[in-house]
Hints:
disordered N terminus; 5 domains; Immunoglobulin-like; about 30% strand; five-stranded mixed beta sheet; about 15% helix; mainly beta; flat; single chain
Amino acid sequence: MKKHSRPVVWDAQELPTDGITVKNNQISFTKEGTFHVRAKTGEVFSDWYEVTALPARKLTTITIPEMLTVDYKLEHTVNLAALQVSYKDQYGADWTPVPALTWSCADEGVSIDENGVLTIPSVGTYTVTAEGGGIASNTMTITVIDSTTKVTVFTPEAKTLSSSGGSVEFTITGVYLPDTGILIQANDSIKAMTTGTATEQKATLTFPANDTENDQPYTVTNSLDSRTAAVTVAKKYSGGSSSGGGGGGGGGGTAKPAYMITVENTKNGEVVSSHKTADKGDTVTLTATPDKGYAVRRIIVTDSSDQKLTLTEKDGKYTFTMPSSNVTVKTTFIMDKSKDEVPNPFADVSASSYYYNAVQWAVKNGTTGGTSATTFSPDAPCSRAQAVTFLWRAAGSPAPSSTEMPFADVPTDAYYYNAVLWAVENGITGGTSTTTFSPDAPCSRGQIVAFLWRSKQSPMVAAENPFMDVNAADYYHDAVLWAAENGITGGTGANTFSPDAPCTRAQIVTFLYRALHK
Length: 518
């Protein structure tokens, strides 16, 4: 049987009446929509087929990496142009040609050049976006760490041993401590390697007995930095004799030494210790009594290695835990007439609170008033606008030289307008960006000590940094060390300063009071 074939011809039912063309078996669309077509051969027709013409492709999504971690120890720049970027149309298909990207970051201190190279100012977190072809990308968070090994504390469990010697555990705290350990040693025969984590490691050294009539000091070093720790093995003590019936022999022994508490003489007040000597672990209470017209400026207690001990203040008394060494107490009193000359109008400011003198001074000098006629709200957060205003008023409310405000969020009728201008002129603050001051944002601990330090012409500091959360690259690094060294504020813990924690009104007037009376 001979087979015959007939050509197939496509026909169109136009729904709507335009937008589709069927010619020479080719279907073309001039706009999006739903259409129906059928095939026929001779007088035989197929069923109608629904054809949907989708909208024309266009770029709708630019996706950049959501997270990126950079080690400041290794690099201070990021080549954004080298990152993997995805371009998609509305159907999820890859889009070409790829548009040129413009990268942006609003964080203070960050710069991006025309080649897309971002320069990192310091350790921290930064937010980056890109734009191309009128399409904005998602947000990328760049987290900058610093893996530089750093020791913050190197301390022995005990600093004095009896003449029989013994073992002492040493603790090294820091960041990125090596997992291979740290060598600590007193000499070639007394040494050990630490073990532990990246933030804390320990090792134990055993010191021999001392049979001499003089104390035997040891200086213990660590292989990471120049910090040392001192341990002393006491000289041999003579034992007392005892007698017993039948010619019993005398017995020898060693006396456990108590550690001395030396309270240095000071002017304009008196400090009395609850103990003259104490054993390790005893609680010692210091009572400070200022002369009339004076107040306690600061009390510092140091051990035999000149390390500061932690003091707890309550109701005018200061307590500390006795270490295994002698301690020295140094006290400074400052002139203060606020209690005698200014009545306290605030029901929420107790005479026993640590900020009482500071609040009285601030009110007397017009630095700040209360939040009402009878309240100061000492625990309320202090904004950046309030902080610079307090500082400006304490400086005598000087008129700024310029009237050109660089910040769009500081209106001309704001109470803090002149204070912000003055602070910018004097290099006390540069704002949170080139065009914003963020006046209503809480003032952090790092920001307020930086303001105070800059107002003092940024004095040089030589103190070692005890705080694990304050890095050398941080803008507030020197300010924090200056504040701690001068008793303006200490840390929130033995090794922490909490620079990002918000400050209260009581804290800021107290810091300001201490800074101006140092």
